[in-house]
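Subject: two folds for Thursday's group meeting

Dear M.,

Sorry for the delay on this. The cluster queue was jammed most of the week, so I only got both jobs back this morning. I'm pasting them in the order they finished. Each block is the input sequence followed by the predicted structure tokens. Could you check whether the formatting survives your parser before we put anything on slides? The first protein is the one we discussed after the seminar.
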Amino acid sequence: MNKLMRSLWVGLCILMLTAGAAAGGSNPEILAEAHSLLATKEVPNIERAIELLEAFLAQTEENSELLWSLAKAYLYLGDRSEDNKLNWFETGKAYADRAVAADANNPHAYYWQGALIGRIGQTKGILNSLFMIKPLQQAMERVLEIDDQYADAYFVLSSLYDQAPGWPISVGNRNKALEMIEIALELDPDNPSYLVQLAKVLVSHRRRDEALQVLSAAFAHPEMEIDQILRSDAEKLLAELQ
């Protein structure tokens, strides 16, 4: 889709949904369209989702659903950008902060706030990553206070406990990492991201053969053909194990 057609498409969508914006609601059609675009994990579609959401947000009041959706979109964009990563992550974090302010009981708002805190720390380097650990942990714990079935929060905590230095420097704990990812998989057994994380934790526990079996299951999932970042991560781990 060229730039002109893309602009016309976005404009048409916004015109069709103006009535919902005037009412001050988080129009379900535009949210569904944006999340459908994000699910492709392709940069042009992520950018289209951002255009849709920002145009709609400009016409309505602060709305947590729209705001955390934008936070998610900017995280996806930053993950897939060679340049401007930090800018995209910080933009997403600002939207997540607004989402939390708009609804202090929305677990998605805290989840994307925490995820973006983590990305900003990783992008700035190891020292900043250490300073980001506590806020990230607190955000995910808040998610689980609101919704203890929120599988992605357990997934993020598993990654945090697996990667962070251990006590007394930080919160790293391999046993907790395993516990968290096992809970995530109980809630969503076929999630390939969780399977790859489980494989990483099993490697940390020196359970190489089990890690290989789990990776094999992850590679069989159709999502691996869509999410090239996840696939690359899994392939790197597989190469280390072979």
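Second protein, same layout:
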Amino acid sequence: MSIINFIIICTIIYCTESTVYDITTSSSNWQSIISNLKPGDIVIMHQGTYTTSGSGYFQLTLNGQLTQPIIIQGAPNEARPIIENPNTGLDAQNILNIQGSNFMLKHLAFTKGSRGIRIGPAATFNAIFDDLYIYDTATTAFAANDAGNEYYNITLRNTEIKITNTFGEYPFINKPDL
């Protein structure tokens, strides 16, 4: 094997390497781990409550690839891990603002804060939200409605939404006319 072929093969292996992160409630750096995922990475969160830091606002940008999506999921055969905002009420921040492409959130619960999950504030596509439980939010549980943003191939399935307040118990997905 020539040295050039060896370098090409090593580069391909290095660039396509993915990591599986096993996170528990004792993982104090769980938000940092999730914020630095690369295409193909998988996060398995175990049951328990994970409280977002600071004001509770957690902005997450995930950019996987079509053949190597980023996956954040609750551990199989365990109760859904709960991601919660430490604040409640209309003045609280969203629990999670998420944007990017080629990612999946699966078997997770979200509670408190104003909105549960807000897609954006940038273009988001090829995203799957599966087996989620969003509850006890001050406003909308799931929103993709910021003016000027593009949203496509967004899948929301097998998800339960309850105990939301001012805007009711439904996903809010549209573009308001300005």
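Two things I noticed about the second structure. Residues 78 and 117 are 22 Å apart (CA to CA). The first strand starts at residue 20 and ends at 23.

Cheers,
T.
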